[in-house]
C-alpha cells in the first residue's frame, strides 16, 4: 500500500514510532536544552550532548543558542513585560496557541541571543551545519 512508507509499518507501529520520537524530543529538550544548557545543572557526555543536539536540529530545527537565550530571558524577566512567553502578560491563549511564534520572534532578536545565549556550543558542527541549515 502507498501509505505504508519506507519501513512498511502498520498503523499501530506508526503510532508507536511517533510516540517514541515525541518522547525522545521531550527528553532532549528537558535534559539537554533545559537542564544541561540553560541552567548548567548537569554535564552530559559529549556523545550524548551531540546526539541530543543533532536530534533537535533534525526533528525540530531548534537552535541550541536561541532556545537557551529565550529561556534565560524568560527567567530574567519572569512574568513581566520582558518575558518572551508570559501567560500573565500575553494571556494563556496566546502562549498556548502561538508559543512557537513567540519563541521564533524572541529567537530572532540578535541582542537577546547575544546577551543570554553565552556558553552554548559553537563548534564546527554548530557553525557550519546546524546554524546555517
Briefly summarize what is shown.
The protein has 133 residues and is an all-alpha fold.
Word description of this protein:
- The longest helix has 28 residues.
- With 133 residues, the chain is mainly α.
- 67% of the residues lie in helices and 0% in strands.
- The radius of gyration is 17 Å and the shape is globular.
- It contains eight helices and no strands.
Q: Structural class given helices, strands, pairing? A: mainly alpha
Shape: globular
Give the proportion of residues in helices: 55-70%
Overall pLDDT, averaged? 93
Bin the strand percentage: under 5%
Give the number of DSSP strands.
Answer: 0
- Major sheet attributes: none
* Low-confidence residue ranges: none
Distance between the termini: 33 Å
String of helices and strands: HHHHHHHH
What is the rounded Rg? 17 Å
Number of helices: 8
Topology summary:
Elements: H1 11-38, H2 46-60, H3 64-76, H4 87-90, H5 92-97, H6 99-107, H7 110-116, H8 124-130
Helix pairs in contact: 1-2, 1-3, 3-7
Q: Which labels suit this protein?
A:
133 residues; mainly alpha; 8 helices; 0% strand
Amino acid at each position: 500500500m502507498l501509505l505504508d512508507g519506507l519501513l512498511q509499518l502498520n498503523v499501530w507501529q506508526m503510532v508507536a514510532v511517533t510516540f517514541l520520537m515525541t518522547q525522545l524530543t521531550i527528553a532532549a529538550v528537558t535534559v539537554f536544552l533545559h537542564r544541561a544548557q540553560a541552567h548548567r545543572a548537569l554535564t552530559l557526555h559529549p556523545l550524548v550532548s551531540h546526539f541530543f543536539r543533532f536530534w533537535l536540529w533534525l526533528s525540530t530545527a531548534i537552535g541550541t543558542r536561541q532556545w537557551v537565550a529565550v529561556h534565560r530571558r524568560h527567567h530574567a524577566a519572569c512574568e513581566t513585560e520582558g518575558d518572551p512567553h508570559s501567560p500573565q502578560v500575553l494571556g494563556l491563549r496566546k502562549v498556548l496557541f502561538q508559543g512557537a511564534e513567540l519563541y521564533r520572534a524572541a529567537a530572532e532578536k540578535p541582542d537577546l541571543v547575544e546577551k543570554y545565549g553565552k556558553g552554548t556550543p559553537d563548534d564546527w558542527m554548530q557553525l557550519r551545519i546546524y546554524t546555517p541549515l
